[in-house]
């Protein structure tokens, strides 16, 4: 056992020296002067705390406390701002936890939805074409459409001419 591990085992060794789990720590303390000195220092501190006696309260403590409580009860209630301030400063926050959890969930959904929408918009398989190429393709399709229309008009004009000729 090294000194660092022994330092963490000293409180257990101090409180219950005869425990079977403390044999390794006890052997290290017997062989290490620094750890032995630390254990002796802790034992001296505990023995001083054992001799300390708490002072007796004043004989009028209960009466003074009762008077102070009655004074506080008879005071006018604080305004709504002071009540809100004291509630925010001195409470444990248990009533805010559901709202906080809901807010965090909404934030996670917004971020996740935004990321999904951005990924759904990107086409990973296709290379992006330049606007010039797109315009040329549109013009080519328009040219093909115009040629088709010209052919239709020519064919229609030929059919009209054949119908106008008298048959002999």
TrEMBL record:
Gene3D superfamilies in UniProt: Anti-sigma factor, zinc-finger domain
InterPro entries assigned: Anti_sigma_zinc_sf
Superkingdom of origin: Bacteria
Protein name, entry field: Uncharacterized protein
């Amino acid at each position: 056992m090294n000194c660092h591990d022994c330092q963490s085992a000293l409180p257990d060794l101090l409180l219950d020296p005869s425990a079977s789990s403390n044999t390794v720590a006890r052997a290290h303390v017997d062989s290490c002067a620094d750890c032995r000195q630390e254990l002796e220092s802790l034992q001296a501190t505990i023995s001083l705390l054992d001799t300390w006696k708490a002072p007796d309260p004043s004989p009028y403590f209960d009466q003074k406390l009762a008077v102070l409580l009655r004074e506080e009860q008879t005071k006018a209630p604080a305004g709504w701002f002071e009540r809100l301030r004291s509630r925010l400063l001195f409470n444990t926050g248990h009533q805010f936890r559901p709202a906080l959890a809901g807010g965090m969930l909404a934030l996670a959904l917004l971020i996740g939805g935004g990321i999904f929408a951005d990924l759904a918009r990107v086409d990973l398989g296709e290379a992006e074409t330049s606007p010039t190429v797109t315009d040329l393709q549109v013009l080519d399709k328009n040219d093909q459409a115009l040629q088709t229309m010209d052919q239709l008009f020519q064919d229609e004009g030929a059919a009209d001419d054949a119908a106008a000729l008298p048959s002999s």
